[in-house]
Amino acid sequence: MKKIRGRMDESILVCVFYGPNGERLINRGNKLASMLDCPLYILMVDSRPFDEFDTEKSAYVERWKELAEEYGAEDFIIRDNESRPSAKVIAEVSHDLNITQIIIGQTARSRWEEITKGSFLNSLLREIPFADFHVVSVERSIKGSDHEEFEKGVRCYLVKDADTYKISFTQTKECQYEGIFFKEIGTDFNNGIFKFMHNSKLYQVEVEDDYIVDPMLVRSCIEKTPSIG
Questions:
Q1: What Gene Ontology molecular function terms does this protein carry (predicted)?
Q2: Which stretch of DSSP H or E encloses residue 188?
């Protein structure tokens, strides 16, 4: 049952994506909404259709729905099968709901990585200058090797998107290359590395929020390779 909020000039949006950090973000959002006595919304964005979620991800979604009901959230919003960057989807929802405060999880990137490659938060600040952001820290795993920095690799595909490429976990006729995606530990976003073979040589490119950071290497290989679809 939704709680009756007394203050409507503030509204909070919690952005959850994948993994155990989502519950921590929702708890933080509920505490803030209770303090401000204002509406609470929860948003999940995913590039895959909802009916293609694996068992683990579906379990997380069900748990988040339970928390939304328990805390009296105004709405639990799922934007699945999204081809747009997450920052643009969050901005659209924030505009529609008149959100004033947004809660997100901190990614596992180091300060130097953020300086040289940019950060997801900076993308959000450009898209949503009217809202305040609360970044909840995520405990980082100790990095003893390259393998410990990333989760277990999963099969995915590259899809051309304007002048760049994005990863897709569903094979379609638009897919141009098949490879393995290694997601960074400690992030709710699709940040990590994508590895693929071309002419018996292994290539590795960085991924940030579903998109290839530097598409030049990919372009030089893939545009000469027939589609796998």
A1: phosphorelay sensor kinase activity
A2: none
